[in-house]
Specification:
Layout: E1 15-19, E2 22-26, H1 36-44, E3 52-56, E4 64-69, E5 75-79, H2 81-113, H3 120-134, H4 141-147, E6 160-163, E7 166-173, E8 177-184, H5 186-197, E9 207-209, E10 215-217, H6 220-231, H7 237-255, H8 263-281, H9 285-292, H10 295-302, H11 328-338
Antiparallel strand pairs: 1-2, 3-4, 4-5, 6-7, 7-8, 9-10
Length: 340
């Protein structure tokens, strides 16, 4: 990795000022920057035009290259490309650690789901099982209140129906998309059906019963805390989505080897698969590729390595209610990435 230095936005930096249809960049002395190389470096950062109060790192090797305030009033950062690449590698290695633990984790979820009543363990096991099977975004309480869009932690009872061992969700999700998704899992359906019928005033679906009998609405923090417990690691709901995005991409690219091995055919296959994965996640293709799919899966495909030999195992040894990609196919993806 390129040797980077820690940026300190509290220290003086370059500035940006509107000038005609573009921008003028200001040096540390507040005067227009006249170094052509520095101006080109700053332009290459592609700082969003809508940002205000922009700070630009004067060091080309600073780990934070720029920061500013977006239209919503949030402080946003642009990191050095080498820093992002290193962080992405660490993130995906972390997700592989989760993948190795999933068989044991799923066994624990099954044990907790087999319980009775609406204990913390049973309800949170149902929530994590839904994330594992349905790739749900966890959502957030503040986001639901401010935007009227939902995730699994904030979904309302009216958004959910149950029948014949299947749970169906329909609700406004992030990015102005209506989510419609069904998950066939009898034990989860039993929990969800009971939660819909419970007698309390909360409109939210997920809640568990406290020892004294009162109901506690499930939060994103509750779900992530439970995930850390059952995985015995510092994992979150997003790590599940990242792993499933990678597995789905691996399967899609393995099938794509039949479409041809020219550069054009491979590029088209990557675009198609990323688009398909983004549809499952409820994200844009750009976000799915940049934040969820392990880039090594695409690199390996472009170099002729996929999990194609494992496709014959798709659905084999998969119990009812589980995804066909779980089990042997997941292990093939894990093995491929561990040897990359």
């Amino acid at each position: 990795m390129r040797e980077l230095r820690r940026s300190d936005p509290g220290e003086p930096g370059y500035g940006r000022r509107k000038c005609g249809k573009g921008f003028m960049y200001l040096g540390l002395d507040g005067r227009p920057l006249d170094d052509p190389a520095e101006k080109e470096r700053i332009r290459s950062l592609v700082i969003p035009p809508a940002w205000t109060d922009v700070w630009i790192c004067p060091d080309a090797d600073g780990h934070i290259q720029a920061l500013g305030t977006d239209a919503a009033g949030r402080r946003q950062y642009l990191y050095h490309e080498a820093w992002r690449e290193q962080r992405d590698r660490e993130k995906h290695e972390h997700v592989l650690d989760l993948a190795e633990r999933l068989p044991k984790v799923r066994g624990t979820l099954a044990e907790h789901l087999a319980g009775r009543g609406f204990s913390r363990e049973r309800v949170l096991a149902a929530a994590v099982r839904l994330i594992d099977l349905g790739f749900f975004r966890i959502g957030g309480e503040a986001y639901a209140a401010e935007n009227g869009t939902f995730g699994l932690a904030t979904v309302l009872r009216e958004h959910v129906s149950c029948g014949r061992g299947e749970v169906t969700f329909e609700y406004p999700a992030k990015n102005s998309k209506d989510l419609f998704r069904s998950v066939a899992e009898e034990d989860v359906c039993k929990v969800v059906s009971g939660l819909k019928r419970r007698r309390d005033d909360s409109p939210e679906l997920l809640a568990y019963r406290l020892p004294g009998g009162a109901w506690h609405d499930v939060t994103t923090g509750d779900i992530n805390a439970y995930i850390r417990e059952v995985t015995a690691g510092d994992f979150s709901a997003k790590d599940f989505r990242t792993w499933h995005a990678t597995v789905l991409a691996a399967v899609g690219l393995a099938v794509s080897v039949r479409a041809g091995d020219s550069d054009t055919a491979r590029k088209r296959a990557v675009v198609r698969v990323v688009k398909e994965v983004s549809a499952y996640l409820g994200n844009t293709p750009a976000v799915a590729r940049a934040s969820y799919i392990d880039p090594r899966i695409i690199d390996l495909y472009e170099n002729g390595r996929t999990i194609a030999p494992a496709l014959g195992k798709l659905g084999v040894e998969t119990a009812q209610g589980e995804l066909a990609t779980q089990g042997p196919v997941e292990q093939s993806v894990l093995d491929l990435l561990r040897t990359a």
